[in-house]
Amino acid sequence: MMHKLHKFIIFLGIGMGVTLFSLLLFAVLPSIIQNAGSDWEQIVNSGYQSDEKLLAIFESHPAYIAMYETYPDAKQELNSRGRGNGILQVGIMNFETNNQLVLEMYHDKRNDSINVNARCHTMNDERNLYADGLFTEDFIKNTNCLDIIGEITDTEVTMHSSGDVVTREMQPLR
Length: 174
Fold this sequence. Notes:
This protein is α+β, with helices and mostly antiparallel strands and 174 residues long. Helices cover 40% and strands 29% of the residues. The strands form 2 sheets. A 5-stranded antiparallel beta sheet has the order 1-2-3-4-5, covered by helices on one side. Strand 1 (75-82) and strand 2 (85-94) form a beta hairpin. Helix 3 (62-70) runs parallel beside helix 4.
């Protein structure tokens, strides 16, 4: 009798193990297949993209075109991150005022998108002018940041009850 009970416990343990393994497999297997499928798709579609192709993508962007139309002497630096991802910096500097205009472009191959921003670094002021995305092209064309001299100040406008308008220059924001 003890021998039969011992066999029953062994078979019961094996049966429970197989049942639990099957349930775990059915619960986890769909997500494994889904993740493997998306990873495989990414591997197949992410073929090696040369720096020349990446640079051509950046060069077709309106902000890049605006930068070189406005500042033909601008310098650029490409930092390729592999698989079609990378960063391109295009910049120009006025060595008399030490002001810089820098266009930064980020390419994400997975989303097939380019994010851009432009910064105007004025050396005489702690604040910097900045634009990103939609307004970057217009910022480059319309902001003459290389020639800004001195600190940018704000102007306070007050209208008195008599209708007189008084304008007073404020101290720079810090």
